[in-house]
């Protein structure tokens, strides 16, 4: 890993050599995120922070081998046992020095490093592909809604049902249901005339379809009931909403006291500030804040279909929005959102097909999550096998098959100890002469 990705490593060209980082050094966090490590490669003139411990592998031990060990479950099991501290865990150099590391012969070290790099490269490639799937599925859902609200999703259905009552007749019944409270803006205007919809459909505004409820400006002072207080963060990607993240709710007495307007279950609620195109059907009575606008859905209109239609009109809402520091829609503009109204029977078919496709997308995402979890487990499995001698043939096995001798790790280790001993004696001699 490049040095610049390591927290705590800073440029310091005039620092003493004792604290300078070299290529091949390993730094380990001893506080906070205890045990996280990085192998330093190609650093500039840099030093490490006080919350890091630097280890310098002794040649000819493979630095990358130690780097892989510090990512393995074997290492993390040791770190967990060594960590101390009540509020913030910490570990010191003395404890890390006592950690036992499985050390194979030098030739075997090189084979292990090469094999681990090969296998982890494959795992990382698979993980990168899996990470792209959520964005793909988001675009898929958007494409499904666009096809649903343009009539493309149900072209075959209309051919099989040519005598279905047109949307214009449905609209007349909806107007009759509203008891003489029609919107001032009945039919949608603007750029919708350029958008093709089936002949049996009609463009209409949200206010031309539904009465609305605008929430009270004042936030309630107390929340001691079960009527959910719904705000924008509670939506997510859900098409239905019946609970909130905060857990706040009002009693009926509190709704009267604070003049909070209760939105009945079955209504459609949409965002009217900041990000547009967020909408969902309420599955229970609720109270909303000023970031939301509520539509009372008539019985002759499918509430989920209205949600689909609103979610495809985010661009139209952005064009209508008043922008100061944050874009917002007032009541008039909320009621002016264009809706491609389909016949009621076709609305039900659209909802059925969209739900089936979204269910398929959910299943794909669930399988992707499982695959991502498997990839994480596979990484750990590779590292465990590497340090159990199960990933590549051992040096002893190869020497036996090839009829040759080999240098065991114990001889390598003894040679390193002798070399370190000579270096210490030379260092003492230099200090004595000084």
Q: What CATH architecture label of the largest domain applies? A: Alpha-Beta Complex
CATH superfamily of the largest domain: DNA methylase specificity domains
Number of strands: 18
Helix content: 40-55%
Sheet with the most strands, sense and barrel status: 5 strands, mixed
CATH topology of the largest domain: Adenine-n6-DNA-methyltransferase TaqI, Chain A, domain 2
* C-alpha-based Rg, rounded: 33 Å
- At the first level of CATH, the class of the largest domain is Alpha Beta
Q: What's the arrangement of strands in the largest beta sheet?
A: 7-15-12-13-9
Average of per-residue pLDDT values: 87
End-to-end Cα distance: 40 Å
Overall morphology:
elongated
Based on secondary structure, the structural category is alpha+beta
Strand fraction band? 5-15%
Tally of distinct domains: 4
Low-confidence runs (pLDDT<50, min 5 residues)? 1-5
Alpha plus pi helix count: 14
Q: What are the main properties of this structure?
A:
four-stranded mixed beta sheet; Adenine-n6-DNA-methyltransferase TaqI, Chain A, domain 2; alpha+beta
What does this structure look like?
- With 434 residues, the chain is of the alpha+beta class.
- Helices cover 43% and strands 13% of the residues.
- It has 14 helices and 18 strands.
- Strands 7-15-12-13-9 form a five-stranded mixed beta sheet.
- Strand 12 (268-271) and strand 13 form a beta hairpin.
């Amino acid at each position: 890993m490049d040095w610049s990705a390591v927290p705590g490593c800073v440029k310091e060209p005039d620092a003493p050599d004792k604290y300078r980082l070299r290529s091949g050094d390993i730094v380990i966090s001893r506080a906070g995120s205890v045990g996280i490590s990085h192998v330093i490669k190609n650093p500039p003139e840099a030093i490490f922070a006080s919350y890091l411990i630097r280890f310098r592998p002794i040649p000819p031990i493979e630095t990358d081998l130690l780097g892989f060990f510090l990512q393995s479950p074997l290492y993390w099991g040791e770190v967990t046992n060594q960590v101390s501290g009540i509020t913030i865990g910490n570990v010191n150099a003395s404890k890390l020095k006592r950690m036992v590391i499985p050390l194979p012969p030098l030739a075997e070290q090189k084979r292990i490093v090469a094999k681990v790099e090969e296998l982890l490269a494959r795992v990382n490639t698979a993980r990168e592909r899996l990470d792209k799937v959520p964005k793909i599925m988001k675009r898929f859902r958007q494409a499904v809604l666009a096809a649903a609200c343009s009539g493309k999703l149900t072209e075959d259905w209309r051919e099989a049902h040519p005598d279905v009552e047109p949307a214009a007749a449905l609209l007349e019944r909806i107007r009759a249901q509203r008891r003489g409270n029609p919107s001032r803006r009945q039919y949608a205007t603007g750029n919708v005339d350029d958008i093709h919809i089936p002949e049996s459909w009609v463009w209409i505004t949200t206010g031309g379809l539904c009465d609305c409820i605008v929430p009270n400006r004042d936030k309630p002072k107390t929340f001691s009931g079960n009527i959910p207080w719904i705000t924008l963060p509670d939506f997510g990607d859900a098409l239905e909403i019946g609970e909130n993240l905060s857990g706040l709710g009002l009693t009926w007495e509190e709704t009267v006291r604070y003049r909070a307007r209760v939105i009945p279950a079955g209504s459609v609620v949409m965002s009217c500030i900041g990000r547009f195109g967020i909408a969902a059907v309420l599955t229970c009575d609720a109270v909303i804040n000023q970031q939301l606008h509520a539509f009372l859905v008539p019985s002759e209109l499918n509430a989920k279909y209205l949600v689909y239609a609103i979610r495809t009109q985010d661009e139209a809402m952005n064009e209508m929005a008043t922008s100061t520091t944050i874009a917002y829609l007032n009541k008039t503009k909320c009621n002016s959102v264009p809706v491609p109204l389909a016949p009621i029977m076709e609305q039900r078919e659209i909802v059925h097909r969209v739900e089936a496709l979204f269910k398929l997308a959910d299943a794909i995402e669930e399988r992707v999550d499982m695959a991502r979890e498997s990839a994480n487990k596979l990484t750990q499995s590779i590292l465990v096998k590497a340090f159990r001698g199960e990933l590549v043939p051992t040096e002893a096995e190869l020497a036996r098959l090839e009829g040759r001798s080999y240098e065991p790790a114990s001889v390598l280790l003894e040679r390193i100890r002798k070399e370190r001993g000579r270096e210490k004696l030379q260092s003492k001699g230099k200090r004595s002469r000084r």
